[in-house]
Specification:
- The complex is a heterodimer of chains A (109) and B (114).
- Helices cover 0% and strands 59% of the residues of chain A.
- Chain A has 109 residues and is an all-beta fold.
- In chain A, the strands form two sheets. In chain A, strands 2, 4, 5, 9, 10 and 11 form a six-stranded mixed beta sheet that branches.
- Chain B is built from no helices and eleven strands.
- The N and C termini of chain B lie far apart (36 Å).
- Chain B is mainly β.
- Classes of the chains: A mainly beta (109), B mainly beta (114).
- Chains A and B meet through strand 4, strand 5, strand 9 and strand 10 of A and strand 5, strand 9 and strand 10 of B.
């Protein structure tokens, strides 16, 4: 069974708005990673947050991690049409990197 | 740099046929893995390798074999294809997993078993 669960499964917003996606997991982690997948392509790494970190920023991306609640969130600010994609959280254990089913984000012009 | 290269990009197999999906990386990464992606299921880990000569099972290993004779290559073998193995397969590599580094993905192999 997959160890990560993203919520919501689908999200549709207007260009310029902020998008928030959540990830919950079940086991202890070394780190948590977020990836983007454009239709028909491989995953592309966005940001990594280690288990001893609580927040991380990269450009328009902000990731938080709450290990006590086993959850993480990805915030994309000032969304653009090019942000339309599926987003996955990767749960990194001692050896395995596993994913949830993803959030499909659609940015409407 | 080529990164992670998967071949073929598309493949149609008949039930019972065998084939090997190729994956090669030119980044000298220790860790390599195979995932399958089905609609609504996200990515599921099939097998992974932490270095040459070492492989282990992931979440859905049944029906698949792997080996890792070199650092660069990590082929995935289907010995007797079944329609349930129709999926998109992704290979990924990363520098190592202990510290935690980003994974680089190939462009995928779309496999249809009829």
């Amino acid at each position: 069974s997959q160890q990560g669960e993203e919520d919501p499964q689908a999200l549709s917003i207007q260009e310029g708005e902020n998008a928030t996606m959540n990830c919950s997991y079940k086991t202890s982690i070394n780190n948590l990673q977020w990836y983007r997948q454009n239709s028909g392509r491989g995953l592309v790494h966005l940001i990594l947050i280690r288990s001893n970190e609580r927040e991380k920023h990269s450009g328009r991306l902000r990731v938080t991690l709450d290990t006590s609640k086993k959850s993480s969130s990805l915030l994309i600010t000032a969304s653009r049409a090019a942000d339309t994609a599926s987003y996955f959280c990767g749960i990194q254990g001692a050896q395995k990197l596993v994913f949830g089913q993803g959030t499909r984000l659609t940015i409407n012009p | 740099n080529a990164g992670v290269t998967q071949t073929p990009k598309f493949q149609v197999l008949k039930t019972g046929q065998s084939m090997t999906l190729q994956c090669a990386q030119d980044m000298n990464h220790e860790y390599m893995s195979w995932y399958r992606q089905d609609p609504g299921m996200g990515l599921r880990l099939i097998h992974y390798s932490v270095g040459a000569g070492i492989t282990d099972q992931g979440e859905v290993p049944n029906g698949y074999n792997v080996s890792r004779s070199t650092t660069e290559d990590f082929p995935l073998r289907l010995l007797s294809a079944a329609p349930s193995q129709t999926s998109v397969y992704f290979c990924a590599s990363s520098r190592n997993q202990g510290v935690g580094t980003e994974a680089f993905f190939g462009q995928g192999t779309r496999l249809t078993v009829v």
